Each structure stands twice: as C-alpha cells, then as structure tokens.
Amino acid sequence: MPAKVVVGVQWGDEGKGKIIDILASRADVVVRAQGGNNAGHTVESNGQVYKLRLIPSGILYPETLCLIGCGVVVNPPSILEEMDELAKRGIQFDKFYIDPRAHVVMPWHIELDGLSEKFRGNNDIGTTRRGIGPCYMDKSERSGLRMYDLVHPEVFRAKAKPLGELKNRFISEIYGEKPLDVDAIIEEYIEYGKRLAPYIADVSVLVYEANKQGKEILFEGAQGTLLDLDMGTYPFVTSSNPISGGVCTGTGVGPTMIGEVIGAAKAYTTRVGKGPFPTELFDAVGDTIRERGNEFGTNTGRPRRIGWFDGVILRHAVRANGLTGLAVNKLDTLSGVGSLKVCVAYQKKDGTVLKNYPASLEELAECEPVYEEFPGFDEDITGCRSFDELPQVCKDYIAKLEEVCECPIKMVGVGPARDQNLER
Ligand code: GDP
Ligand code: IMO
Ligand code: MG
C-alpha cells in the first residue's frame, strides 16, 4: 500500500499533529523523519490535550507502531520526560522504537546553540535553543554521537570524551564561557542510554517489512517547508529537511514507497523566530488573530507572528513537496476578523510581478504582496461537521485558496478536536 506523508507547508505549527492523529486512526505505522524537540505538536483527543515534541503523534493509538527515524535528533532527557508524562496518562510504549542511527543532542549542543545566537546579536535566527543546529552540524561534520553509541556505554565513553573536550574549548576559548563537566555528562547520559536501550531498532527495516506486508504507513513531518534547510528562508530555517524528500533520507526508505503527500497549512500564516514574512500583519487584525487562535508557541511559549495566507509560499510548497492534497486548519479563527486577504503574487519595486518564491532574502526584501480581498464571516463555524454546513463565504474562501495554491484542499479544520476536521 502506498505510504502517506504529512508535511508543514508554511513556517511550522500548521496543525500537523492534529492531521497525523486523525490519519493515524487508519494507519498501522507512524514514523518521524527529522527535527528534534524543537517541534511541538498538539493533539486533542477525548477532551484531553497532548503536547508532543519527539514522540510521533500516532502514539495515542495503542495498536500503532510508532517510530523515530535516523534523520531525527534525539535529546535523551527530553524524550524520557515525554515518555514518562505520557505513561502517567496511560499511554504504552510497547510499540515504540528509535533508529540506532539517529543522532543524540548533547548538553554542549544546547550550550553552543545559545552562545552562537548571542554571538549573532541582532542577526540571530531566533532558534528554539534546543541544540538542534549544533547537533546536525556534528552529524554533517561526521563527529556526532548516535543512539547506538548512547546505548553502548564503552563505545559512548570513548567517543563522547574527546568530543566533549573539544566542545569545551569552543565554549571557553572562543566564547569565554565556563566549560561543561564532560565526565559528569557522560555518566548521566549513559544512565539515559540504559533506559532507552529497549527501544532501539532499525527503523528502515521495520518500515520496509511493514510496507511489504501491505501495512498503512504514515510519515510525520515536523517544522515546515519554509523552515527547510534547502528550500526555506535560509538562513532563517531549521537544520533539517522538513520537505517530503526528507522522509526518505530521514527514515531510510525509497521514494517509490510514497503515494500521497498531504500539506498542512493554516487558513492564514504564522511564524515563530526571525526571518522574512511578506504577508506579516502589524495591526489590530494580527493581534485579534493571535488572541483568537491562541498563537503562542507550543514549545517555547513565544507569541507567533501573524500574517495573511500567502499563495506564493504555498505554490512553492506544492512544488517542493509534490503535494497531492492540502489540509487547511484554523478556518474558525478567522471568524469575526473582518474582510480577508489572500496574497496571490509578489511585486518588486520596479513593478516586476513574481509568481514564484525567490531564493534570496535580498530579492524578497524588495517584494510587496499583491492581495485579493474577500468578504469575511462572523458565524461560529466550530460546530460544523461537514463541508456543506459551512457558510457560503467560507466555501468561497477555500475555493480561492485552492485556485491560488493549484492543489486540491482535502480537509478543512474548524477546531482543534478530531471531529472538527471536515473532509471533502
Ligand atoms: P504542529 O506543530 O503543526 O503540530 O501545530 P501546533 O500543535 O504547534 O499548533 C497548532 C495549534 O492549532 C494547536 O494548538 C492545535 O490544537 C490547534 N489547531 C489545529 N487545528 C485547528 C483548527 O482547525 N482550529 C483551531 N481553532 N485550532 C486548531
Ligand atoms: P513544529 O514541528 C515552528 C523555528 C524556530 C526558529 C527556526 C530555527 O511544531 O511545526 P531551531 O531550534 O530549529 O534551530 O530553530 O525554526 N522552528 C519552528 N517553528 N514550529 C516548529 O516545529 C519549529 N521548529 C523550529 O522558531 O525560527
Ligand atoms: Mg508546533
């Protein structure tokens, strides 16, 4: 059976967790492919709210195999804390595995994330300071520690000691800060490794075998297309590949396994952290959407920047991910905000109209959004349970988004719960 992928198509927080949870009810396997505990995925199920950082959003279904692929960076105390919290709420981990090739986020990565952000001053990226970038740096530099190492104490000691000492030289000699206690960190992490050892298994093999047996596989994206290291607003991006191509390298499967790619979007746009955001709103409308949509980071609590729906970035996402459909969330949040705008193109100062997202921040800085305006709506749509029940203005708005994105909209979200998702 062809596998499905869910990716974020804006700057993260599009409601991927909700869509994964809905689709996971029909899946046998859910797999995370990239990112780390910089993600924050919210799932509302039976009136309970779960905030997941590293654990795949399929975990709420006891029969579902939940996997963390080789492309994910794992923070051991963070994942253990998450597992403990979920276990207290009755969630079981007997079908949960982490690939031995996944890299380990170490305390020096977190320290160096903060120090390099401080060094950048006003040009900081606004990272989550979870050590994600420095961990992927070590992976690319071929000096990283992997989950296999973590669960083999002698291997871990031998590799971690010189690495930690080198990082301490960066911390003290370059940044002038207090070095970390490498020996204490190693012993602490070996204890985490003992707890995580039962959960290590080759994810590439597990997914391949499940696929051969005709099982339904769902790949869970973290972050979003515009945060992609290659296709995003570089350098204001994360250090992994959230686009659908990242699923293959991040889990060890080939592209022929994938049949469907669903992009999660919001009916407007949000962004946490710094970087360009052409349709950003700085007025009362933006504040209203932030308050109504409770747009504060799931992970760091930071207020999210708000803007109108941007068709240019959506078309970029449709192309870069090979989207077969879109899920548009949070339409309900736009109720009562007045007339709605959709960005259909960018226009440069010299009058040139751009239909495609530019590669450089310099070119982007010259662009102004070209908007089309639509009547808003005041109805409370959170009780709608089918697309037909939506007011006509909402249907027209969705039809316009579909036309601008050049991609079918298959789901519309009118609230955070499982049953507030209207399938078309
Ligand atoms: P993710 O990172 O893409 O999984 O998204 P987050 O969980 O960080 O942020 C999305 C937020 O929107 C969460 O609080 C969800 O519960 C909520 N949400 C998702 N879909 C809808 C929707 O259709 N309407 C409303 N009002 N909230 C939604
Ligand atoms: P989910 O999966 C929104 C942003 C950070 C920052 C940039 C780099 O919940 O959609 P990093 O710590 O990754 O080096 O930070 O990326 N960022 C996210 N923004 N949602 C996320 O994940 C994010 N993960 C990282 O705010 O701008
Ligand atoms: Mg999130």
What does this structure look like?
It is found in: Cytoplasm. Its EC number is 6.3.4.4. It is built from 13 helices and 19 strands. With 424 residues, it is α/β, with parallel strands linked by helices. The chain has 3 domains: 3-100 and 199-261, Adenylosuccinate Synthetase, Chain A, domain 1, CATH 3.40.440; 103-145 and 152-196, Adenylosuccinate Synthetase, subunit A, domain 2, CATH 1.10.300.10; 265-423, Adenylosuccinate Synthetase, subunit A, domain 3 (Adenylosuccinate Synthetase, Chain A, domain 3, Alpha-Beta Complex), CATH 3.90.170. Helix 3 packs across helix 4 (132-141), helix 3 packs parallel to helix 6 and helix 6 packs antiparallel against helix 7 (182-196). The longest helix has 22 residues, at 153-174. It starts with a strand and ends with a strand. Magnesium ion is lined by residues 12-13, 39-41, 298.
